[in-house]
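Category: protein sequence paired with discrete backbone structure
Discipline: computational structural biology
Format: plain text, a pair of labelled lines
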Amino acid sequence: MISRKAKYALRALFALARAPQGKPLVIGEIAQDQRIPKKFLEQILLDLKNKGILDSRRGKGGGYVLLKPAEKISYGEIIRMIDGPIAPLPCLSITAYRKCADCADETRCETRRVFAKVAMQTRQVLDQTTIADAIAIPREAPPVS
């Protein structure tokens, strides 16, 4: 599962990607439109700015804008930025590998083999899906499971 912070970061990016080209959005607009607590959103936007995803403009007509095109911002990039590695097990992490303490032999670990497939498919979807892709999909109610 992704954190609430990552989910809010993605929603803020959707709002900014839908804004007319170059039109800054103020925190209050994004918070209200996306139903994100304003104080929490301030932290998220500052993080995204510090990591080169957003730019901010001061003064009248100021606010936040995407620094990178929505087509160049992947879900994987944002989730790693906010939540860290995308891996169901520490031994499957590409960026933060750590041997599982209770594992005698990774090559024979049945759990690792199955979750390696899960991790590979998950990374593929997240790294190939951009903010632009997400906002191009018509909004509809999520399926009930």
Notes: The first strand starts at residue 54 and ends at 57.
